[in-house]
Amino acid sequence: MHPNATVLLHPDFRTGTIDRRLFGSFVEHLGRAVYTGIYEPEHATADEHGFRRDVADLTRELGVTMVRYPGGNFVSNYVWEDGVGPVEERKPFIDLAWRTVEPNLVGTDEFLQWAEREGIEPMMAVNLGTRGVAAAAALVEYCNGVAGSRWADLRIANGREEPYGVRLWCLGNEMDGPWQIGHKDAHEYGKLAAEAGKAMKLVDPSIELVVCGSSSMQMETFGEWEQTVLSYTYDLVDHISMHAYYEELDGDRASFLGSATGMDRFIRRVVASADAVGARKRSDKQITISFDEWNVWYLESRFPGETNLPLQHQPARIIEDVYSGLDAVVLGDLMVTLLNHADRVPVACLAQLVNVIAPIMTEPGGPAWKQPTFHPFAATARLAQGDVLDVRVQTPTITTTRHGDVPAVTAAVTWAGERESGELGVFLVNRTAEPVEVELRHPGVALTLGGGVEVTADHEPAVHGPEHAAQIEAEHVATLDAAPVTASAPGTTTVRLAPESWTALSGTATLT
């Protein structure tokens, strides 16, 4: 066996309470995320509004609590007014971000009513690329205003009497990126975001605002961007966004398995940047993070780039990455990192929900199915409840090319209940190619672990289609009726982890 790792836990030591918005996702007008994704009126499962019932059912099983819309890069040249009102009067337009003719069949009302029917909180983004203050404030009024003002009355005329009450708003998308339509430098964007956010909050003071952070930690302007933008917006906004994607490059499996260490460093650096601005302002306010795009995405090795996409008039099969068991283990590990930063990361969006780098895939007129990455997300959303405990992990390290030395074992533990007793969620990752025994040390706590889910990495190429996804599920995703534990001393529970695996277990605990 690999040298043991230990995880020390006690309910007196807690990192923070889990915000259920941590289990968000993302639907952008990109590829087949909307059309033949969530929406396909001709499909056999379509509801009276044209939305696929099979996709909605899988979304519920996935445990998604919130969905970001309509973008993404798409939002930066989107005129939201063109996507409301009678569908037959709407005009198609060229989406400059993804070079696709947008049919305009799904817009603000259709999305928000779908989210409402499915019990999903919406997260809306405004266009600060080609538009600005007035359009952003008007959209808030359209969504949240009461009768008697221009844009609220337009919503009512379009058939929706009650305000939607959208709480969470993104001030544009990835405005630091040269690829963004209407790209701006940090000073230009910071000033615009401050003015747009001010106007939006004058319409509805109850909303929360997300200001754009860096599109990745690899951006040349990373760090400086955060500090400059927050110097203009600190007193106005609630969250700063983070985006990050991870992939296996050049067969470097060890670095890929250590991706969550890179995510952890990214979060810590953004927190430090935000807190530095707060310190300079002598502010007691704390900016939190909206990690509103994250996933495994083979961006460098599979995606040709936006400028190389041909102009297409039908929903295009863009960025339909097919995932493996290895990808699923890494995604589960990324979720462990998000949990362990619950004090500063209340919002996160797995990008995206359907077809586009997604846990759910569909065929037009055909089936919908789960990709391997579906399973760790769904299990975490189900089992992670209450507070995240501040655990201490002692583990050997692995040397990687991209991330340096990374822990061989990672862990997160959640506790739902009072101090004296609670329901546990235990999440453990073995990044090594050998089995590992992890010793859970819980002095003064009687702990019983039950069943859960285990995902193991594979070594085969990922293949598109429900048959291959089902094979991965059968061979690399196991429902555990009981925890894989060995005999332990009082106050200690030892869990066996398979090589290159992610394991989630339920449990109960009582102070002794």
TrEMBL record:
<keyword id="KW-0378">Hydrolase</keyword>
<dbReference type="InterPro" id="IPR017853">
    <property type="entry name" value="GH"/>
</dbReference>
<comment type="subunit">
    <text>Homohexamer; trimer of dimers.</text>
</comment>
<dbReference type="InterPro" id="IPR010720">
    <property type="entry name" value="Alpha-L-AF_C"/>
</dbReference>
<keyword id="KW-0119">Carbohydrate metabolism</keyword>
<comment type="similarity">
    <text>Belongs to the glycosyl hydrolase 51 family.</text>
</comment>
<protein>
    <recommendedName>
        <fullName>non-reducing end alpha-L-arabinofuranosidase</fullName>
        <ecNumber>3.2.1.55</ecNumber>
    </recommendedName>
</protein>
<keyword id="KW-0326">Glycosidase</keyword>
<dbReference type="Pfam" id="PF06964">
    <property type="entry name" value="Alpha-L-AF_C"/>
</dbReference>
<feature type="domain" description="Alpha-L-arabinofuranosidase C-terminal">
    <location>
        <begin position="292"/>
        <end position="501"/>
    </location>
</feature>
<dbReference type="InterPro" id="IPR013780">
    <property type="entry name" value="Glyco_hydro_b"/>
</dbReference>
<dbReference type="Pfam" id="PF22848">
    <property type="entry name" value="ASD1_dom"/>
</dbReference>
<dbReference type="InterPro" id="IPR055235">
    <property type="entry name" value="ASD1_cat"/>
</dbReference>
